[in-house]
Amino acid sequence: MNVCVLYSGGKDSNLALLKAHEEFEVSCLVTLSPKSEESSIFHYPNTELVKLQAESLGIPLIMETCSDDEESSLKALYNALRKAKELYSVEGVVTGAIRSTYQATRFQRICDDLELWCFNPLWLRDEISILNEALERGFEIIFVRVAGLDRSMLGKRLNEEIVQKFAKMRSYLNPAGEGGEYETLVLNMPLFKKRIKILEFEIIGGEFDATLIVKRAELV
Q1: Environment class of 45 (CB within 10 Å of its CB; exposed 0-12, middle 13-18, buried 19+)
Q2: Residues 70 and 157 in one domain
Q3: How confident is the model at residue 68 (pLDDT cuts 50, 70, 90)?
């Protein structure tokens, strides 16, 4: 089956991509780029870097910009998936959704409208097990946004110590960050032919609401 992957460049979409690669033919990546972190649906920080990630993966990329509101975001997603269907004859869409019914139901509705199968390989998985699997499979993941966590996390690599910390905080923190607590960028994973090296960045925002913006990066 030919599929496309909804791809943000973060840990969940990359793990979903890896699982899709093991089962299907991944024909393209689909990325939505919102205007700001106020987007209620799509990953915001450093979406331009998906172009480098797609180059490293050797997979075609369909990228659409959108406003932060739900209507504009879903319209852009519909248009992007329609392009994927027309250009690459995809039959299904793979997402990295874990527990967000808000996202999943909206994605499913659009897939139904386009007669595409929707596959969520991480759905209802324990969040700590997802983080551990990413580390065990050699993912190099850094934090690029925090909302509620300390800004000192930005730029740090996800490791076993941080996973254990998140496990202890799970009564008030979604360990996978799906509630917006944090967002990530994958610099390397098993399907990358080259890793991403960050050359220049800046951190903007406050102590507990901040974003790492990558200004220059390259494949090495």
Answers
A1: buried
A2: no
A3: confident
Q: Which of 46, 58, 115, 123 is nearest to 81 (CA)?
A: 115
DSSP conformational letter for 153: G
Which of these, 162, 174, 182, 186, lies nearest to 16 by C-alpha position? 186
In a domain, 178, yes or no: yes
Overall domain count for the chain: 2
Tell whether 18 and 113 lie within a shared domain. Answer: yes
In this structure, are 90 and 41 located in the same domain? Answer: yes
Range of the domain at 207: 129-219
Q: What is the spatial distance between Cα 163 and Cα 173, in angstroms, rounded to a whole number?
A: 12
For 95-124, what is each residue's pLDDT tens digit? 999 998 988 899 999 999 999 999 999 999
Distance CA 175, CA 70 (A): 25
- Does 53 fall in a domain? yes
Same domain, 105 and 7: yes
Residues 172 and 108 in one domain: no
Per-residue pLDDT tens digits for 8-55: 999 999 999 999 999 999 999 999 988 766 656 676 678 899 999 999
Q: Which residues contact 126 (CB under 8 A, 6 or more apart)?
A: none
CA-to-CA dists, residue 31 to 66, 109, 131, 173, angstroms: 10, 18, 22, 26
The CATH number of residue 172's host domain is: 3.90.1490.10
Check if the beta carbon of residue 178 is closer than 8 Å to that of residue 99. yes
- The pTM of the whole model exceeds 0.90: yes
